[in-house]
Amino acid sequence: MKIFSDKLYNILKYLAMIALPALAIFIRGFFPIWNIPYAEQISDSIVCINALLGTLLGISTIGYNKSNK
User: Are 16 and 9 in contact (CB under 8 A)?
Assistant: First the structure.
């Protein structure tokens, strides 16, 4: 069973593997330099969202692999 279309899956996979982790690290390092508040809270929120996204992608992959057997 496919949860996501191939195009959406590839976009979400890029976000989960590259964009969101990079954004969280950037915020954690950049915000304190310029005294922008809430760096930890924002980056931790991004990490939590990324964990949820990774879980949904994993479930989608498992469902896709089962349906192709």
Answer: no
The encoded tokens of residue 32 equal 């304190």
Cα gap 30→7, rounded to integer Å:
32
Instruction: Give residue 52's pLDDT.
Output: 97
Q: What DSSP element (H or E) covers 59?
A: helix 39-67
DSSP code of residue 34: T
* 1-41: pLDDT as tens digits: 677 889 999 999 999 999 999 999 999 999 999 999 999 99
Neighbouring C-alpha atoms within 13 Å toward the C-beta of 50: 18
What pLDDT does residue 64 have? Answer: 87
Phi, psi of 33 (to 5 degrees): -60, -40
Residue where the block lists tokens 């992608």: 57
